[in-house]
Amino acid sequence: MTYLAPRYIQFSHMKVMLSFLAGLFLVSSCLSQTSDPAAKKILDQASAKIKSYKTIQAQFSLQILDAQGASQGTKKGTVSMKGNKYIVIITDKEIYCDGNTVSTFDKSANEVTITKVDPASNTITPQKLFTNFYDKDFLYKVNGEQKTGTKTLVEIEMTPSDKTLNFHKVYLYVDKKSHLVSPIKILDKSGNRYIYTVVSLKGNMSLSDAVFTFDKSKHPGVEEVNLTQ
């Protein structure tokens, strides 16, 4: 914190969701030469903060604005992460990643779509945005600081190097004191904006591997679309 199956191969709300929300990527020497060193230092601190937790549970809100800036509503959700596993729950969707497959459950249709994890994919997963959101596929720079209550947030602008992607900008706001990232703003090419705000975050909670696997027995009559075969 959706985005890998037919319904979310398009840049839908849930595709952006996984944009929020596999694997870890290293900053290439080429990127470090062309991106802002000051931004890299801040992102390294934010990444180290999150990586210090073995598990993470966070509550977040997602606000969607159209190209004219009109609100299209706000959704609330939760994300849990453990290594390369994650689960995202938001309104009528649930996304489970056990490290090998991603199961996207559409509650309204009572349908689950299963796909394989593709480490080479440009999809931005929860781990990627929470830790290595500045991988070799982005250029980044510091835009400045702003006060929000008692916090001082540093705005970092990120531009994907792949111009075929459906989004063209990601803005991260890093708390100068805690090094935590929130909010995150994603701009797609149609002008829509997706704003993720972390409401609460807890580290090192007890999470079993089983919670990251979709359990069909808990969803009687669910239709399965398996794209891994």
Characterization of this structure:
This protein has one domain (6-226): Lipoprotein localisation LolA/LolB/LppX (outer membrane lipoprotein receptor (LolB), chain A), CATH 2.50.20. The protein contains five helices and twelve strands. The protein is 17% helix and 43% strand. It has a twelve-stranded mixed sheet with strand order 7-8-9-10-11-1-2-3-4-5-6-12. It has 229 residues and is of the alpha+beta class. The radius of gyration is 17 Å and the shape is globular. The longest helix has 15 residues, at 37-51.
Q: Quick gist of this model?
A:
The chain has helices at residues 6-9, 13-20, 29-34, 37-51, 126-130; strands at residues 55-65, 71-82, 85-90, 93-97, 101-106, 111-116, 138-148, 151-160, 167-175, 181-188, 193-203, 223-226. The protein is an alpha+beta fold and 229 residues long.
CATH C-level class is Mainly Beta
Strand proportion, as a percent range, falls in 35-45%
* Residue share in helix: 10-25%
Order of helices and strands: HHHHEEEEEEHEEEEEE
**Mean of the pLDDT scores?**
81
Flag low-confidence runs: 1-14, 19-33
CATH architecture: Clam
Kindly state the number of beta strands. Answer: 12
Summed up, the helix count is 5
- In whole angstroms, the N-to-C terminal distance is 26 Å
SS-based structural class?
Answer: alpha+beta
Strand order, largest beta sheet: 7-8-9-10-11-1-2-3-4-5-6-12
Largest sheet: 12 strands, mixed
CATH topology: outer membrane lipoprotein receptor (LolB), chain A
Q: Would you identify the CATH H-level superfamily?
A: Lipoprotein localisation LolA/LolB/LppX
Rg over alpha carbons: 17 Å
Oligomer: single chain
Number of domains: 1
What is the approximate shape? globular
